[in-house]
Amino acid sequence: MVEAGAVREIIFVDDGSTDETAKIAAEFPLTCMPGAGRGPGAARNLGWRAASGAFVWFIDADCVAEPDALARLVPHLDDSGVAGVSGSYGIMNPESSLARLIHEEIVERHAGMASRVNFLATFNVLYRRSVLEEVGGFDERYLKAQDAELSFRILAAGHALAFERGSRVKHYHPTKWGSYLRTQRQQGYWRVWLHLTHKGHAARDSYSNWIDHIQPPLAVLAGASVVLLPLAGVRWGAPVLAGLLGVAQVPMTVRLVRRTGRIAYAGFAVMSFVRAFWRGVGMMHGIVSRAWGRPSRLGA
Questions:
Q1: What would the DSSP string read from start to end of the chain?
Q2: Is the dihedral of CA 57, 87, 150, 299 positive or negative?
Q3: Residue 16's pLDDT band (boundaries 50, 70, 90)?
Q4: Interacting residues of 224 by C-beta distance below 8 A, sequence separation 6+
Q5: What is the reported pLDDT for 233?
Q6: pTM for the complete prediction?
Q7: pLDDT tens-digit readout, 121-157
Q8: Do 163 and 178 meet the contact criterion of CB atoms below 8 Å apart?
Q9: Residue 3, strand partner residues
């Protein structure tokens, strides 16, 4: 909870930790609340509803705020039409090649974002409590993409959203391919639910564009066309589609190498190419789940 640019209350929601987290948190002057293990949306709802102030600052558990992170967010709420404002990332584990690739992509995308955006990420975001109350907070069905889903409802209610790239929280980005790709599969799954529920955002948003959004379908088509290789007339389907997917990696890869001056970031093309297939798998699962009529816990 935030008042007048200063933190007045800290609420920590322990949503099913299995280590010493709760014990460590209890050593500090904060309110520790047990979560029900129902996902980040439910945990965040518990937290903000227990807060007593007019503004609520959300920070993810794997993030460490820089000293001026909050001070850079608060001025945006001087505009009464702004419901919330989010910031950017620093990096806590630059020794990992995978973490650096993930981080530099995020930095590049944030560098191109305007001061007014159409969704806010919850790793570092300041919201008016009154707006959270107005729209009912986070949709707890969403185990991923719940931040974008909330943003779309806030926009539909007539409020504006702001972005401040100078506000940063340092993040422990994934260092293992398995966990990273599993998260990408989950993202693909929940994006189907998100875009079928909130029409008009599937082509592009403040963070990504149509080149990004077309990659999971391309990956799905490339994979599916492999089984058609023996059939006459479609033998080039998989190579052509895979080639198009490869070409789609060029714009961001070039931007990363140009900005950093490091050819090592050409490795982004491989990372992004591979994750498109995992997002595609999640997307297909999401389509089936949506047709079934309810979210699957396998989307977790």
A1: -EETTEE---EEEE-S--SSHHHHHTTSSSEEEE--SS-HHHHHHHHHHH--SSEEEEE-TTEEE-TTHHHHHGGGGGSTTEEEEEEEEEES-TT-HHHHHHHHHHHHHHHT--SEES---TTEEEEEHHHHHHHTS--TT-SSSHHHHHHHHHHHTT-EEEEEEEEEEEE-----HHHHHHHHHHHHHHHHHHHHHSTT-SS--SS--HHHHHHHHHHHHHHHHGGGTTSTT-TTHHHHHHHHHHHTTHHHHHHHHHHH--GGGGGHHHHHHHHHHHHHHHHHHHHHHHHHTS--GGG-
A2: negative
A3: confident
A4: none
A5: 56
A6: 0.89
A7: 999 999 999 999 999 999 998 989 999 999 999 999 9
A8: no
A9: 6
Question: What span, in angstroms and rounded, lies between the C-alpha atoms of 224 and 222?
Answer: 6
The residue that leads in pLDDT, 85 or 2, is: 85
User: In DSSP terms, which residues pair with 165 in a beta bridge?
Assistant: none
Tokens of residue 150, six digits: 């909330």
pLDDT tens-place string over residues 168-204: 999 999 999 999 999 999 999 999 999 999 988 888 8
Tokens of 242: 């895979």
Q: Domain limits of the chain? A: 2-175, 210-299
State how far the Cα of 184 lies from the Cα of 87, in Å rounded to an integer: 22
CATH code assigned to 2-175? 3.90.550.10
- Per-range mean pLDDT, top range of 31-35, 100-104, 238-242: 100-104
Contacts of 151 (CB under 8 A, 6+ apart): 84, 118, 119, 120, 161
The sign of the CA dihedral 260, 264, 266, 271 is: negative
User: What is the separation, in whole angstroms, between the first and last Cα of the chain?
Assistant: 28
How do residues 279-292 score in pLDDT, each as one tens digit? 999 999 999 988 88
